[in-house]
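Input structure tokens:
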């Protein structure tokens, strides 16, 4: 891996004479990609190398969308981005803190995080198409028997019901697990825009709830903080998007357990299966 990292940084003219002899690196936590903190002594970089994933992401769309987010001041800049390979290099920022689920329990931190979502949702930017939660499950499963067939069938019902709503088309992040929020100099930023696209903001909020285990009290507070009236219609729409998020990311995890030899296959499959089953149950219980 050291030689590969040297090659990547050399391609971007980021290694000075003699620095490669002293290069050290550390694997950073991640799910979709493999990222490394590369230490060259006086310079430190984060190098992202796309992983083997069961969906087809458009890196050119990610590049375009992240540039717009940088201009809005809601994400951190990068140095280089190869739209063919998806390799991205950013400057390592000392003092940057990655969110955990517990940080959303802090009302002030949560408000700062939500403010960044509101900025992007209320902007007049147009994101290039990439990940679409209304159709992604079809790429990750198929009609038929078994768990994936059931997931496909239920997700189709969820989408049919969602289409009865007046769905919006606004710039959205669409992958709001805690690790994609960071705190730097008392400001919260959103990172990793590879699933960003035009979409309905309700998916962002529902995905935020699901991926970070918001309890009912936190959900109610969040609706108030973002100005959504928690009436029956809005609660049902949020539940539908949450069920869709669970099923989609569950199918994604199952797919990754099949194609990526470097992951813990049993863990990914188990987590994926649990999410799919939870999403199906959430929809079939007809809470709202």
């Amino acid at each position: 891996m050291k030689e590969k990292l040297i090659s990547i940084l050399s391609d971007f003219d980021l290694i000075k004479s003699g620095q490669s002899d002293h290069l050290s690196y550390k694997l950073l936590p991640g799910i979709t990609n493999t990222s490394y903190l590369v230490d060259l002594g006086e310079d430190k970089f984060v190098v992202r190398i796309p992983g083997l994933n069961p969906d087809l992401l458009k890196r050119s769309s990610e590049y375009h969308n992240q540039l717009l987010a940088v201009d809005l001041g809601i994400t951190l800049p990068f140095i280089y981005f190869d739209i063919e390979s998806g390799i991205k290099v950013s400057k390592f920022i000392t003092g940057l803190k990655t969110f955990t689920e517990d940080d959303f329990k802090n009302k002030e931190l949560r408000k700062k995080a939500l403010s960044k979502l509101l900025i992007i949702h209320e902007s007049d930017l147009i994101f290039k198409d990439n990940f679409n939660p209304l159709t992604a499950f079809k790429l990750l499963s198929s009609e038929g028997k078994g768990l994936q067939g059931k997931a496909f069938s239920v997700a189709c019902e969820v989408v049919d019901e969602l289409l009865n709503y007046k769905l919006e088309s606004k710039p959205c992040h669409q992958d709001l697990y805690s690790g994609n929020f960071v705190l730097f100099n008392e400001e919260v930023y959103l990172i990793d825009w590879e699933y960003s696209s035009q979409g309905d903001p309700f998916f962002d909020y529902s995905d935020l709830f699901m991926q970070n285990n918001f309890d009912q009290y936190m959900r109610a507070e969040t609706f108030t903080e973002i100005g959504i009236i928690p009436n029956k219609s809005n609660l049902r729409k949020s539940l539908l998007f949450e069920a869709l998020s669970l099923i989609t990311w569950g199918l994604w995890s199952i797919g990754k357990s099949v194609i990526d030899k470097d992951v813990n296959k049993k863990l990914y499959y188990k987590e994926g299966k649990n999410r799919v089953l939870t999403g199906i149950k959430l929809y079939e219980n007809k809470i709202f």
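The domain at 2-91 is CATH 3.30.200.20 (Phosphorylase Kinase; domain 1). The longest helix spans residues 232-259.
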